[in-house]
Write a structure and sequence with these properties.
The complex is a heterodimer of chains A (200) and B (491). Chain A is an alpha/beta fold. Chain A is built from six helices and seven strands; from the N terminus they run βαβαβαβααββαβ. Chain A has a seven-stranded mixed sheet. The longest helix of chain A has 14 residues. Chain A is globular. In chain B, a hairpin with a 2-residue loop joins β5 and β6. Chain B is elongated. Chain B starts with a strand and ends with a strand. Classes of the chains: A alpha/beta (200), B alpha+beta (491). At the A-B interface, α1, α2, β3, α3 and α6 of A face α14, β13, β15, β18 and β19 of B. β3 of chain A pairs antiparallel with β13 of chain B.
Chain lengths: 200, 491
């Protein structure tokens, strides 16, 4: 009865906590939902998001704490520190279909609370073959397991995204001489760099 | 009640089994030859009945034995034949009762207390091919052992009185250290009966506690526990199909049967399976084998079957399966509670199954923890399995050279580039085709990279640029001699 009529039992939804000071913490993304991150321009450096989430680890992680479902098999381990890579389970897919199926398995599993789907390297026509029902089903499973699912895509893709972030860091080659921590700090400080739009 | 089975003259009996021509000749085996000792001086280790009938004794030097019996046949020890004979002796013991002790190389003692049917008739029928076997029964294992080692007492139910005529040298079977016979000889003791008549308390005061234990043993006052022989932990099983099967359902059915047996054996030994190995032997002569690491030690059939079933579902059989092999690596079952402060997976069993499903769907080498390779070679990495062995990476971990992560093209895209030559090096001006064509408006580089120069087959050399084109995309451009331009990724 409590599940069926939560209002009658005084069960309140937890308020959504949003800490804009930490744009690259897993807690940024809502639990039990799908978030979408899209680049505002061609030079957004969207994988800086993954770098920020992995952090600058100094110890080997005993278990991976997040999964990257790499739709286009484009992840470059050499772009991250060896210790940070130990936090990550890399699932190398070759197509949009493989990516969706892999993500579905991992979300159903429930062992990994944070799952990133990288769809940026997949062609738009392949992404269009994914039915909207697949995303809704994924969202329902994520709700059941309280998983945080983040989809990186080149354009808006998820019809049921709990949160959609636009990353517009507008990098140039001069930024390549700066340390990564400074780029991440700059993303936090620039008001336009990390916009967020909540859509339900 | 205990029964001891003994093969007299074990080394020579084993050697004569494979040497049929010398079986009726006086034969002997010498003790191990020490460096520098001549063969004539070596003592006789073991001899057969014919040699003993000729008047030769164990411990005689060979030269003396040859004087007494010039036709003495000197045999070499045959370890393989001895192992086979030992196996047969052990098999005979296990056929009587399950609790067997390997008391000596040539003797086993069997506990008959668990046997419901009388052993009388069975003992009379015990036999080994081309080898004599002696047996004796007693209320204690030591009495049975001593009785079985002598022809005069074998075949009987031994009591203390039966051992009295045996020579005092029999005590060497019981002695754990030193030679007790020297002092006893000086005392004029010739038989066990003489020893058993000695007052125990006075003897212990003079010789120590060990002769007191012998005294108790010979009087049947102590009955020690057997050091039970257990077969080694072999968990390998094989299932042969009567006809080659092409359906995986039948394979799964057979696999379940093997897993039930495996679970029973593991439970009997208080162990758990750490990893499973299975092999499908195909009708074409090929075999398909997989090793499955289990996330946690498993003893239940369900826990072991689930990852195997997932893997089997991904197998495509090209020909019929004729047999199935299953083996397991064991470890101790986890009985401790989980770590309080360490990270643990909520459901490790389910995690392993999910990983197996992913591997079945994507293929091998597509799921794992990325380990950056110890080389500057482009796209050098390894994937470590996410479940199972502990992660080991070099102490000096790698750090990225570029602050912005690369979105890599696998394989790199071959493109055409307009370039000019500056300082004998190409200088890119524009990308003519590929996913991001356009004029290059900014660039970093060239970064000269090379490696494996000591190996002509694997040596590589390249120039890399980070470039920005008019569409504002940031790209990694690579030149490899003589004239190959590649787009390696986008930032």
């Amino acid at each position: 009865m409590r599940e069926k009529f939560p209002q009658a039992h005084g069960v309140r939804q937890e308020p959504e906590i949003l800490d804009t000071e930490k744009p690259f913490e897993p807690e940024t993304f809502p639990s039990g939902g799908i978030s979408e991150v899209i680049p505002a321009c061609a030079t957004s450096g969207i994988l800086l998001l993954v770098a920020g989430l992995l952090g600058d680890e100094t110890e080997i992680s005993p278990h991976p704490s997040m999964v990257l479902v790499d739709g286009a098999d484009a992840f470059d381990p050499a772009s991250f520190s060896g210790m940070a890579c130990t936090k990550l389970l890399w699932v190398r897919c070759q197509s949009a279909l493989e990516m969706i199926r892999s993500a579905d398995l991992l979300i159903h599993d429930g062992n990994m609370p944070f799952i990133i789907l990288d769809a940026t390297g997949i062609l738009r026509r392949d992404l269009a073959t994914i039915p909207a029902s697949a995303w809704w089903r994924m969202k329902q499973t994520a709700e059941l397991n309280s998983s945080r699912v983040v989809v990186l895509s080149a354009s808006p893709l998820i019809p049921c995204a709990s949160r959609r972030l636009t990353l517009s860091s507008n990098l140039t080659l001069k930024d390549f001489d700066l340390p990564r921590t400074e780029l991440l700090e700059r993303l936090k400080q620039k008001p336009g760099a990390h916009q967020q739009i909540t859509s339900r | 009640m205990y029964v001891a089975l003994h093969i007299p003259d074990f080394p020579v009996a084993a050697a004569l089994r494979v040497n049929s021509q010398a079986r009726h000749l006086p034969s002997a085996i010498l003790a191990v030859k020490s460096p520098g000792a001549s063969q004539e001086k070596l003592p006789i280790l073991s001899l057969n009945a014919a040699a003993r009938f000729a008047g030769i004794g164990v411990g005689w030097p060979l030269s003396r034995a040859l004087v007494r019996c010039p036709d003495l046949n000197v045999l070499a020890r045959d370890p393989n034949a001895e192992a086979v004979l030992w196996d047969e002796l052990l098999g005979l013991g296990e056929s009587l009762a399950p609790d067997v002790e390997v008391t000596a190389v040539d003797t086993v003692v069997v506990d008959l207390s668990t046997r419901r049917i009388s052993v009388e008739e069975v003992l009379g029928d015990l036999s080994l091919r081309h080898a004599e076997i002696w047996h004796a029964r007693a209320e204690t294992p030591d009495l049975a052992h001593l009785g079985a080692c002598y022809e005069s007492t074998c075949g009987k139910i031994i009591s203390s009185a039966d051992l009295a005529p045996l020579p005092i040298s029999v005590l060497s079977f019981l002695a754990s250290r030193g030679n007790p016979m020297t002092l006893l000889d000086l005392w004029g003791l010739k038989t066990l009966g003489d020893f058993m008549k000695l007052p125990r308390q006075a003897m212990v005061e003079r010789l120590g506690s060990e002769p007191g234990k012998w005294h108790d043993t010979l009087h049947g006052k102590t009955c020690r526990l057997l050091r039970l022989h257990r077969p080694p932990d072999l968990l390998a099983q094989k299932f042969d199909f009567e006809d080659a099967v092409s359906s995986l359902d039948q394979v799964v059915f057979a696999l379940k049967r093997l897993l039930h047996t495996l679970a029973g054996r593991l439970a009997a030994r208080h162990l758990a399976a750490n990893s499973l190995f299975f092999r499908l032997n195909l009708e074409s002569g090929e075999s398909m084998e997989r090793r499955v690491r289990l996330p946690e030690p498993q003893t239940a059939v369900e826990g072991m079957f689930s990852p195997l079933q997932t893997l089997l579902e991904s197998v495509q059989l090209l020909s019929g399966v004729v047999s199935l092999d299953l083996d397991a690596d064991t470890t101790f079952a986890t009985a401790a509670q989980r770590e309080w402060f360490g990270k643990q997976l909520p459901q490790p069993e389910r995690w392993s199954e999910t990983l197996a499903k992913l591997e079945a769907m994507l293929g091998p080498g597509r799921v794992g923890i990325p380990i950056v390779g110890n080389s500057f070679k482009p796209d050098s990495f390894a994937l470590h399995p996410a479940a199972g062995a502990k992660l080991q990476i070099p102490a000096i971990s790698s750090y990225p050279e570029c602050p912005v992560p690369l979105h890599r093209y696998r394989p790199p895209r071959n493109i055409s580039v307009a370039f000019e030559t500056r300082d004998n090096q190409p200088w890119p001006l524009a990308l003519l085709n590929g996913p991001h064509p356009g004029e290059i408006i900014d660039r970093r580089g060239p970064f000269i990279l090379s490696g494996d120069w000591w190996d002509p087959a694997d040596s590589w050399q390249r120039l890399e640029w980070d470039v920005q084109v008019t569409s504002s995309h940031l790209l990694r451009l690579v030149f490899e001699s003589p004239d190959h331009w590649k787009l390696e990724g986008v930032y």
